[in-house]
Amino acid sequence: MTLTTAALVGFALGLDRLVGEPPNAAHPVAWLGRLVGALDRPWSDDDRVQRLLGVPIALVIPLIPAVAAGGFVLVAAAVDPVAGAAIAGLVLYLTTSLRMLLELTSEVVAATADDLETAREGIRGLVGRDTEDLSPAELRSAALESAAENLADGLVATLLPFAVLAPFSLPAAAAAAAWIKGVNTLDSMLGYPSKPLGTASARLDDLVMWLPSRLSAVTIAVAAADPGALVRARAWARTPPSPNSGWPMATLACALPVRLRKPGVYDLNPDAALPTLEDGERATRLVFRAALVAAVLAIALGVALEALLSTAGAGVVA
């Protein structure tokens, strides 16, 4: 019995949809977060030394989940190919996050209608900015910005490399997904200007996320049936400090259309109004449809590569 890439993508995303994320105590990403947290300390009073020490952290730490994931798949496959495929699908599930993102976004948007304290508490799970003085519309903006950005970080970045590598090697596909998740985790915990230790991690994440962020913008435009949104987004995509996050955020802003703003940092599609409650609900649905577009793209890539390998193999036999 052969489990195709399409089946594994469906298994992982279906599990996320039905179960959501496992509790932190059982989540390998949370385990990695505790390791990173232990390293997040002032090893030196010299910022330059901190930056230098951050280089081996950025290079080595993501290899830990990568080696573990690839190794588990390799060992399981040696016992039973179906078991190896199942472990690979489980790795993909653990390195993607869609249901939690959409649920938290929806909860924050809904709470802005009549419960700002709940909205401010919930938004802490999505953004790191100070939200105490934000208006309801600005809270909705922050939630939608995070939903667009995390479409890239939490789904596309691991899903598409897995789909490309799975037809060739399931251990490599699992290792790649785990490595990318490790890079993202390092950046989310250390990649701040106030933390010189995380400078290398932030630069590595910028490099890794260059393509996924732009592909995520494409999926948003396709899901909105508005290819022009991607073109219009170019005017603001480079406004945020990150070289990548502006693409999905600006495309979402243009596709709705709404204004998405982080006060004092960036202002996307500024001629539009800040998102209303209805805009927030529409945006959540749009991000979900964009995730489906990404899943279809991943499956199509996997099917095409499997067909190519099958054809090549038949040619060799002939």
UniProtKB/TrEMBL annotation:
Stated family: Belongs to the CobD/CbiB family.
Pathway(s): Cofactor biosynthesis; adenosylcobalamin biosynthesis
Subcellular location: Cell membrane
Keyword Secreted on entry: no
Keyword entries, A-Z: Cell membrane, Cobalamin biosynthesis, Membrane, Transmembrane, Transmembrane helix
Organism expressing this protein natively: Natronococcus amylolyticus DSM 10524
PANTHER family with a match to the protein in the record: COBALAMIN BIOSYNTHESIS PROTEIN CBIB
Segments passing through the bilayer: 52-75, 82-102, 159-180, 286-309
Protein name, per record: Probable cobalamin biosynthesis protein CobD
